[in-house]
Amino acid sequence: MSDEGASGRAADEPGDRPRLGVVGADEAVAEAIGDAGAERVPVAAGDLPADLDAVVAVGEGAVLSLPPDCPAPVLAVGGDSPLSVPPARVAGAVAAVAAGQSRTVEVPVVAVTHAGGRTRALMDAMLVTASPARISEYSIESGGRTVARFRADGVVVATPFGSRGYARAAGGPSLALGSGVAAVVPVAPFAIDPDRWVLPLGTVTLRVERDEAAVELLADDRREGPVAPNDPVRIEPAGSLRFLATDGRGLERH
Question: Of 35, 49, 190, 201, whose CB count within 10 A is highest?
C-alpha cells in the first residue's frame, strides 16, 4: 500500500531542488515551499508536467480536479480527507515532502459505468432524485447477488477515502484507507431504522427500481446525467491515486 521516501528528490541533494507543483492558491503553501528549499511550480490540474516530484493540492476541489494518471504523488492541504494536512501543519508537511521523509499511500479510484458513459470517482458515487423531497426505490447488488432494496431520496457508495464525506453525514461508517471495502448508505431513507452496508470494493451495482421521480448520477459531486429505471450503474476499482502521508497521517497498515 505504501513506500517509504516516495516523495522524490530530497532537498539536501547537491544541485537538485525538489519540484513541487501547486494546484490552488495559498500563501502559506508558497512560503512553506520556499522555506523548505524546494521549487514551487504553479500548475493546472489538467496540465501537470511529468518531472514534478510532488503535487500540492490546496482544498478538496483541487484534489478532485486531479487526473487519474497524475504523474506525481499528492500532498492534500486543507480538505476533509483522512490524508489532508490542516493549514496549521502545512510548513512541517511540506518540509517533510521536500526532504523525502513522507510515505506514499495508494488510494483506490473507482470507475462508474452507466448507460450514459463511464467516469471515475475518488470519493463517492451517488444516485439521488433530481427534485427535493422526492423519493424513489433503489437496489444494491454485490458479487452477483441482491443485497437490499429500499425507498429513499438516494444512495451513496463511498470509497475509504470518501467515507468521511457525504456518506458519513448520511449516517455511514468511516473506513480505514487500506480496508478494501466501500460504504453504501441510503440518503434520507423512508424507514425508521435504515440499514447501511459495508461491501467489498469489487463490483457494486445500483439500480433505480421504480419510475416515480427523475434520478441523476453524481460522481465526486459532478453531475453525470439522468439514470433511467432498471439501468445498471456499476462501480468497480479502476486503479489508484498516490498521496503523500506525513506526521503519521494515513500510515496505519491494514
Answer: 201
